[in-house]
Amino acid sequence: MDFTDPSASALYEAVVRSGGDLVVGLDFDGTLAPIVEDPTRAHVHPEVPDLLVALSEVVRGVAVVTGRPVRQALALGDLDQVGSRINDLHRSFLVLGQYGNERWTAVDRRVVSPRPPAGLAGFLREVPSLVRRAGAPDAYVEPKGLAVALHTRRLDDPAGSFARLLPLVTDAAARHGLAVEPGRLVVEVRAPGMHKGLSVRRLAEEWSAKGFLFAGDDLGDVEAFTELRAMRTEGVATMAVCSHGGDGPEELEELADLVVDGPDGVVELLRALVHDLS
Ligand SMILES: [Mg+2]
């Protein structure tokens, strides 16, 4: 890898030195798969499946950590197949869905999930009136089992609709004891107390990580980046990689050690990592 920033280069070298004790965590949308109009068609970059298998052979473990339900990520990423190939190699791969609330491992190959949060049913009953009041009655409502996501991407005025909807949703979520997770033209309402930062921390503990590289592109990845900073002060070699797709949040870029050009850039970095660790 050619790094223009010398500090990124030094962090990358430290991550490479952690070798077989390195954990790689990867967000799904905007990181492994391009952001598309229809989220049910967000298929991974074509090189991703082989790359994940190759990566698993040279690091301690590979995890996909996403806001999506596990089953969607498995289907869109061909990750079930990736998991069985990695399992055949006796290496470690898992998928954490809904920010870590759902867990799927290549060994067990089933989704372990808590019950939906208590306030979710009451919140769902309010959704039709919320979207009407926001002037966004046609917002796409995506039930996710443990959460619900409201998308304005396909509306005539996506940004305006989102700006009107967000405060109404935030208020209603709070009344039902739920947390909001705003993203790009989407807000998700879910149980409080779980985020990608916690997922990163638990992965590091589970796999006794001496290095941790995490790549993400959106607000939901901020906690993961923050956790990596904390882990670095504890002596873990960490690298936070922002997959920049053009309209990602500045907040994430500011926390990033390296900014790459969307899923193509992530793939290039992972390819280099496999090469440098082999
Ligand atoms: Mg993402």
Automatic annotation (TrEMBL):
Keywords: Hydrolase, Magnesium, Metal-binding. Belongs to the trehalose phosphatase family. The gene is otsB. It comes from the Bacteria. InterPro entries: HAD-like_sf, HAD_sf, OTSB-like, Trehalose_PPase. One of its GO terms (biological process) is trehalose biosynthetic process. One of its GO terms (molecular function) is metal ion binding. This is Trehalose 6-phosphate phosphatase. It comes from Nocardioides jishulii.
